[in-house]
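notes to self, project folder thing:

trying the whole complex as one job this time. last attempt i did each chain seperately and stitching them together was a nightmare. two parts in total, labels are on each line so i dont mix them up again. if this works i'll redo the older ones the same way
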Amino acid sequence: MEERPAGDDAAARTPDDAVDEAGERARAIRESVAVGVATAIYGISFGALSVAAGLDVWQTVFLSLVMFTGGSQFALVGVLAAGGAAAGGSAIATAAMLGIRNVVYGMRMKPLVGGSPARNVLAAWITIDESTAVALAQKLPGNARLGFWLTGAIVFVGWNLTTLAGALIGDAMGDTRAWGLDAAAGAAFLGLLWPRLKRFQAGAVAVGAAVVAAVVMPFVMPGLPVLIAALVALLVGWFNLFDRRRRA
Amino acid sequence: MTTWHLILIASAATLALKLGGYLVPVGFLERERPARIADLLTVALLAALIVVQTLGAGQALVVDARVPALIVAAALYAIRAPFIVAVAAAAVVAAAIRAFG
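result (full assembly):
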Protein backbone atom coordinates (compact mmCIF):
# COMPACT_ATOMS: atom_id res chain seq x y z
CA MET A 1 0.00 0.00 0.00
CA GLU A 2 2.56 2.53 1.09
CA GLU A 3 5.32 3.66 -1.15
CA ARG A 4 7.82 4.04 1.64
CA PRO A 5 8.61 1.37 4.23
CA ALA A 6 6.35 2.37 7.09
CA GLY A 7 8.49 3.58 9.91
CA ASP A 8 11.25 1.01 9.76
CA ASP A 9 14.12 2.44 11.79
CA ALA A 10 16.79 0.31 10.25
CA ALA A 11 15.63 0.89 6.69
CA ALA A 12 15.10 4.61 6.94
CA ARG A 13 18.10 5.49 9.05
CA THR A 14 20.94 7.29 7.41
CA PRO A 15 24.21 5.44 7.87
CA ASP A 16 25.64 8.17 10.05
CA ASP A 17 27.51 6.68 12.96
CA ALA A 18 28.32 10.12 14.32
CA VAL A 19 24.71 10.64 15.36
CA ASP A 20 24.56 10.63 19.14
CA GLU A 21 21.48 8.46 19.57
CA ALA A 22 20.91 8.98 23.29
CA GLY A 23 21.40 12.73 22.85
CA GLU A 24 19.02 12.82 19.90
CA ARG A 25 16.39 10.98 21.89
CA ALA A 26 16.76 13.34 24.83
CA ARG A 27 16.46 16.25 22.43
CA ALA A 28 13.23 14.81 21.00
CA ILE A 29 11.77 14.50 24.50
CA ARG A 30 12.89 18.01 25.45
CA GLU A 31 11.34 19.52 22.32
CA SER A 32 8.10 17.61 22.80
CA VAL A 33 7.72 18.85 26.37
CA ALA A 34 8.67 22.45 25.52
CA VAL A 35 6.35 22.70 22.52
CA GLY A 36 3.61 20.69 24.21
CA VAL A 37 3.51 22.76 27.40
CA ALA A 38 3.79 26.12 25.59
CA THR A 39 0.91 25.17 23.29
CA ALA A 40 -1.25 23.67 26.00
CA ILE A 41 -1.12 26.87 28.04
CA TYR A 42 -2.90 28.96 25.47
CA GLY A 43 -5.93 26.74 25.68
CA ILE A 44 -6.82 29.22 28.43
CA SER A 45 -7.34 31.93 25.83
CA PHE A 46 -9.45 29.61 23.70
CA GLY A 47 -11.65 28.67 26.64
CA ALA A 48 -12.21 32.28 27.64
CA LEU A 49 -12.84 33.50 24.07
CA SER A 50 -15.24 30.67 23.34
CA VAL A 51 -17.38 31.51 26.35
CA ALA A 52 -17.17 35.20 25.40
CA ALA A 53 -18.49 34.25 21.94
CA GLY A 54 -21.61 32.82 23.57
CA LEU A 55 -20.79 29.11 23.77
CA ASP A 56 -21.34 27.41 27.10
CA VAL A 57 -18.65 25.60 29.06
CA TRP A 58 -19.67 22.14 27.75
CA GLN A 59 -19.67 23.27 24.14
CA THR A 60 -16.26 24.82 24.64
CA VAL A 61 -14.85 21.67 26.23
CA PHE A 62 -16.38 19.51 23.48
CA LEU A 63 -14.57 21.52 20.80
CA SER A 64 -11.19 21.02 22.46
CA LEU A 65 -11.81 17.29 22.93
CA VAL A 66 -13.18 16.49 19.49
CA MET A 67 -12.19 19.22 17.06
CA PHE A 68 -8.80 19.59 18.75
CA THR A 69 -7.12 21.85 16.22
CA GLY A 70 -6.52 25.33 17.56
CA GLY A 71 -6.87 27.39 14.38
CA SER A 72 -10.26 25.90 13.51
CA GLN A 73 -11.47 26.23 17.10
CA PHE A 74 -10.51 29.92 17.32
CA ALA A 75 -12.03 30.51 13.87
CA LEU A 76 -15.34 28.86 14.70
CA VAL A 77 -15.89 30.89 17.86
CA GLY A 78 -14.43 34.03 16.26
CA VAL A 79 -16.86 33.99 13.34
CA LEU A 80 -19.76 33.19 15.69
CA ALA A 81 -18.71 36.08 17.95
CA ALA A 82 -18.72 38.47 15.00
CA GLY A 83 -21.84 37.23 13.23
CA GLY A 84 -23.93 35.28 15.70
CA ALA A 85 -25.95 32.19 14.74
CA ALA A 86 -26.71 33.70 11.31
CA ALA A 87 -23.02 33.25 10.47
CA GLY A 88 -23.18 29.54 11.37
CA GLY A 89 -22.55 28.32 7.83
CA SER A 90 -19.56 30.60 7.40
CA ALA A 91 -18.23 29.56 10.81
CA ILE A 92 -18.34 25.88 9.83
CA ALA A 93 -16.77 26.55 6.42
CA THR A 94 -13.95 28.64 7.91
CA ALA A 95 -13.18 26.03 10.57
CA ALA A 96 -13.20 23.24 7.97
CA MET A 97 -10.96 25.15 5.56
CA LEU A 98 -8.45 25.83 8.32
CA GLY A 99 -8.48 22.07 8.98
CA ILE A 100 -7.38 21.24 5.43
CA ARG A 101 -3.72 21.54 6.37
CA ASN A 102 -4.22 18.60 8.74
CA VAL A 103 -4.82 16.42 5.67
CA VAL A 104 -1.34 17.29 4.47
CA TYR A 105 0.11 16.61 7.92
CA GLY A 106 -1.69 13.25 8.04
CA MET A 107 -0.21 12.23 4.72
CA ARG A 108 3.27 13.11 5.95
CA MET A 109 2.84 11.36 9.31
CA LYS A 110 1.09 8.20 8.09
CA PRO A 111 4.25 6.32 7.03
CA LEU A 112 5.82 7.12 10.41
CA VAL A 113 3.02 6.69 12.92
CA GLY A 114 0.19 4.94 11.07
CA GLY A 115 -0.72 1.27 11.40
CA SER A 116 -3.90 -0.52 12.43
CA PRO A 117 -7.22 1.34 11.98
CA ALA A 118 -7.39 2.11 15.72
CA ARG A 119 -3.85 3.43 15.63
CA ASN A 120 -4.66 5.58 12.58
CA VAL A 121 -7.67 7.10 14.35
CA LEU A 122 -5.60 7.90 17.44
CA ALA A 123 -2.81 9.37 15.34
CA ALA A 124 -5.25 11.38 13.21
CA TRP A 125 -6.93 12.75 16.35
CA ILE A 126 -3.67 14.31 17.56
CA THR A 127 -2.37 15.30 14.12
CA ILE A 128 -1.94 19.06 14.54
CA ASP A 129 0.67 21.72 13.75
CA GLU A 130 2.73 21.02 16.85
CA SER A 131 2.89 17.20 16.85
CA THR A 132 3.74 17.22 13.14
CA ALA A 133 6.36 19.94 13.50
CA VAL A 134 8.17 18.23 16.37
CA ALA A 135 8.11 14.89 14.54
CA LEU A 136 9.45 16.34 11.31
CA ALA A 137 12.26 18.12 13.18
CA GLN A 138 13.78 14.78 14.31
CA LYS A 139 16.56 13.06 12.41
CA LEU A 140 15.74 9.47 13.37
CA PRO A 141 12.35 7.88 12.56
CA GLY A 142 12.12 6.40 16.07
CA ASN A 143 12.50 9.86 17.58
CA ALA A 144 10.05 11.30 15.08
CA ARG A 145 7.45 8.78 16.30
CA LEU A 146 8.30 9.55 19.92
CA GLY A 147 8.08 13.30 19.29
CA PHE A 148 4.74 12.95 17.52
CA TRP A 149 3.03 10.89 20.22
CA LEU A 150 4.59 12.70 23.16
CA THR A 151 3.87 16.21 21.82
CA GLY A 152 0.36 15.19 20.77
CA ALA A 153 -0.40 13.63 24.15
CA ILE A 154 0.93 16.58 26.15
CA VAL A 155 -0.96 19.11 24.05
CA PHE A 156 -4.16 17.03 24.16
CA VAL A 157 -4.20 16.66 27.93
CA GLY A 158 -2.94 20.18 28.61
CA TRP A 159 -5.12 21.90 26.00
CA ASN A 160 -8.26 20.29 27.37
CA LEU A 161 -7.43 21.14 30.99
CA THR A 162 -6.59 24.76 30.15
CA THR A 163 -9.68 25.05 27.92
CA LEU A 164 -11.84 24.09 30.88
CA ALA A 165 -9.99 26.54 33.13
CA GLY A 166 -10.31 29.33 30.54
CA ALA A 167 -14.00 28.63 30.01
CA LEU A 168 -14.68 28.80 33.75
CA ILE A 169 -12.67 32.02 34.02
CA GLY A 170 -14.48 33.53 31.03
CA ASP A 171 -17.79 32.48 32.53
CA ALA A 172 -16.93 34.28 35.76
CA MET A 173 -15.75 37.43 33.97
CA GLY A 174 -19.17 38.64 32.88
CA ASP A 175 -18.57 41.51 30.45
CA THR A 176 -15.64 40.07 28.51
CA ARG A 177 -15.31 43.25 26.43
CA ALA A 178 -14.33 45.23 29.52
CA TRP A 179 -11.52 42.71 30.01
CA GLY A 180 -10.31 43.22 26.45
CA LEU A 181 -11.07 39.66 25.37
CA ASP A 182 -12.31 40.82 21.97
CA ALA A 183 -8.87 42.31 21.34
CA ALA A 184 -7.24 39.09 22.53
CA ALA A 185 -8.96 37.23 19.68
CA GLY A 186 -7.14 39.24 17.01
CA ALA A 187 -3.86 38.74 18.86
CA ALA A 188 -4.52 34.99 19.00
CA PHE A 189 -5.01 34.79 15.21
CA LEU A 190 -1.87 36.87 14.73
CA GLY A 191 0.04 34.40 16.89
CA LEU A 192 -1.13 31.52 14.72
CA LEU A 193 -0.25 33.45 11.56
CA TRP A 194 3.15 34.79 12.62
CA PRO A 195 5.29 31.64 12.15
CA ARG A 196 3.78 31.15 8.67
CA LEU A 197 5.02 34.47 7.32
CA LYS A 198 8.62 33.49 6.66
CA ARG A 199 8.19 33.39 2.90
CA PHE A 200 7.42 36.42 0.75
CA GLN A 201 4.53 34.65 -0.96
CA ALA A 202 2.84 33.96 2.39
CA GLY A 203 3.29 37.61 3.40
CA ALA A 204 1.75 38.77 0.12
CA VAL A 205 -1.25 36.47 0.61
CA ALA A 206 -1.70 37.68 4.21
CA VAL A 207 -1.74 41.34 3.13
CA GLY A 208 -4.01 40.62 0.16
CA ALA A 209 -6.47 38.60 2.24
CA ALA A 210 -6.54 41.27 4.97
CA VAL A 211 -7.31 44.01 2.43
CA VAL A 212 -10.02 41.94 0.72
CA ALA A 213 -11.66 41.13 4.07
CA ALA A 214 -11.70 44.82 5.06
CA VAL A 215 -13.03 45.98 1.68
CA VAL A 216 -15.92 43.50 1.47
CA MET A 217 -16.89 43.64 5.16
CA PRO A 218 -19.48 46.46 4.86
CA PHE A 219 -21.21 44.77 1.92
CA VAL A 220 -21.66 41.12 2.92
CA MET A 221 -23.00 39.14 5.86
CA PRO A 222 -20.67 38.67 8.85
CA GLY A 223 -18.63 35.51 8.32
CA LEU A 224 -18.42 35.85 4.56
CA PRO A 225 -15.46 38.30 4.42
CA VAL A 226 -13.15 35.55 5.68
CA LEU A 227 -14.37 33.09 3.04
CA ILE A 228 -14.09 35.67 0.24
CA ALA A 229 -10.55 36.53 1.38
CA ALA A 230 -9.65 32.84 1.06
CA LEU A 231 -9.95 33.29 -2.71
CA VAL A 232 -6.67 35.24 -2.55
CA ALA A 233 -4.93 32.02 -1.49
CA LEU A 234 -6.55 30.07 -4.33
CA LEU A 235 -5.51 32.67 -6.88
CA VAL A 236 -1.94 33.13 -5.66
CA GLY A 237 -1.49 29.41 -4.99
CA TRP A 238 -2.87 28.26 -8.32
CA PHE A 239 -0.70 30.55 -10.44
CA ASN A 240 2.18 30.59 -7.94
CA LEU A 241 2.29 34.38 -7.92
CA PHE A 242 4.78 36.34 -5.80
CA ASP A 243 7.11 33.37 -5.54
CA ARG A 244 10.49 34.98 -4.89
CA ARG A 245 12.24 31.61 -5.05
CA ARG A 246 11.19 30.99 -8.63
CA ARG A 247 14.02 31.07 -11.11
CA ALA A 248 13.55 33.58 -13.90
CA MET B 1 -29.38 25.53 13.46
CA THR B 2 -28.54 25.48 17.17
CA THR B 3 -25.04 26.09 18.52
CA TRP B 4 -24.73 22.36 19.22
CA HIS B 5 -25.57 21.55 15.59
CA LEU B 6 -22.88 23.97 14.45
CA ILE B 7 -20.33 22.49 16.81
CA LEU B 8 -21.12 18.89 15.83
CA ILE B 9 -20.98 19.58 12.10
CA ALA B 10 -17.76 21.60 12.31
CA SER B 11 -16.12 19.02 14.60
CA ALA B 12 -17.14 16.17 12.30
CA ALA B 13 -15.69 18.06 9.33
CA THR B 14 -12.33 18.81 10.93
CA LEU B 15 -12.02 15.29 12.35
CA ALA B 16 -12.87 13.80 8.95
CA LEU B 17 -10.14 15.91 7.38
CA LYS B 18 -7.61 14.64 9.90
CA LEU B 19 -8.64 11.03 9.21
CA GLY B 20 -8.55 11.75 5.48
CA GLY B 21 -4.80 12.25 5.61
CA TYR B 22 -4.40 8.69 6.94
CA LEU B 23 -7.02 7.05 4.69
CA VAL B 24 -6.49 8.42 1.23
CA PRO B 25 -3.53 7.08 -0.70
CA VAL B 26 -0.44 9.28 -0.68
CA GLY B 27 -0.75 11.56 -3.65
CA PHE B 28 -3.08 14.45 -4.24
CA LEU B 29 -1.95 16.94 -1.60
CA GLU B 30 1.67 15.89 -1.95
CA ARG B 31 1.68 17.44 -5.39
CA GLU B 32 3.07 20.94 -5.50
CA ARG B 33 0.02 23.02 -6.42
CA PRO B 34 -2.51 21.52 -3.97
CA ALA B 35 0.08 21.57 -1.17
CA ARG B 36 0.88 25.21 -1.89
CA ILE B 37 -2.80 26.20 -1.94
CA ALA B 38 -3.43 24.34 1.33
CA ASP B 39 -0.57 26.25 2.98
CA LEU B 40 -1.64 29.63 1.64
CA LEU B 41 -5.28 28.98 2.52
CA THR B 42 -4.30 28.84 6.18
CA VAL B 43 -2.43 32.14 5.84
CA ALA B 44 -5.30 33.91 4.04
CA LEU B 45 -7.95 32.73 6.51
CA LEU B 46 -5.90 33.76 9.54
CA ALA B 47 -5.09 37.18 8.07
CA ALA B 48 -8.76 37.80 7.25
CA LEU B 49 -9.79 36.66 10.73
CA ILE B 50 -7.37 39.20 12.26
CA VAL B 51 -9.04 42.00 10.29
CA VAL B 52 -12.56 40.88 11.16
CA GLN B 53 -11.72 40.47 14.85
CA THR B 54 -9.81 43.75 15.09
CA LEU B 55 -11.83 46.11 12.88
CA GLY B 56 -15.23 44.49 12.60
CA ALA B 57 -18.36 45.59 14.45
CA GLY B 58 -21.15 43.73 12.73
CA GLN B 59 -20.75 44.84 9.12
CA ALA B 60 -19.08 48.14 10.00
CA LEU B 61 -15.35 48.86 10.14
CA VAL B 62 -14.39 50.46 13.44
CA VAL B 63 -11.05 51.62 14.80
CA ASP B 64 -11.07 51.26 18.58
CA ALA B 65 -9.00 49.91 21.48
CA ARG B 66 -8.50 46.63 19.62
CA VAL B 67 -6.10 48.24 17.12
CA PRO B 68 -3.43 49.40 19.61
CA ALA B 69 -3.88 46.06 21.38
CA LEU B 70 -3.05 44.21 18.16
CA ILE B 71 -0.03 46.43 17.53
CA VAL B 72 1.32 45.63 21.00
CA ALA B 73 0.78 41.91 20.32
CA ALA B 74 2.62 42.21 16.99
CA ALA B 75 5.56 43.93 18.71
CA LEU B 76 5.67 41.13 21.29
CA TYR B 77 5.62 38.41 18.62
CA ALA B 78 8.41 40.28 16.82
CA ILE B 79 10.62 39.93 19.89
CA ARG B 80 9.61 36.26 20.17
CA ALA B 81 7.39 36.58 23.21
CA PRO B 82 5.27 33.46 23.88
CA PHE B 83 1.76 33.28 22.45
CA ILE B 84 0.00 33.50 25.80
CA VAL B 85 2.00 36.60 26.80
CA ALA B 86 1.11 38.46 23.60
CA VAL B 87 -2.55 37.49 23.82
CA ALA B 88 -2.80 38.52 27.48
CA ALA B 89 -0.98 41.80 26.78
CA ALA B 90 -3.45 42.60 23.99
CA ALA B 91 -6.35 42.05 26.37
CA VAL B 92 -4.73 44.22 29.05
CA VAL B 93 -4.03 47.06 26.59
CA ALA B 94 -7.60 47.07 25.27
CA ALA B 95 -9.07 46.83 28.77
CA ALA B 96 -6.84 49.66 30.02
CA ILE B 97 -7.72 51.95 27.11
CA ARG B 98 -11.41 51.33 27.71
CA ALA B 99 -11.11 51.86 31.46
CA PHE B 100 -9.03 55.03 31.33
CA GLY B 101 -9.47 56.30 27.77
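what i see at first glance: DSSP finds 13 helices and no strands in chain A.
need to look closer tmrw
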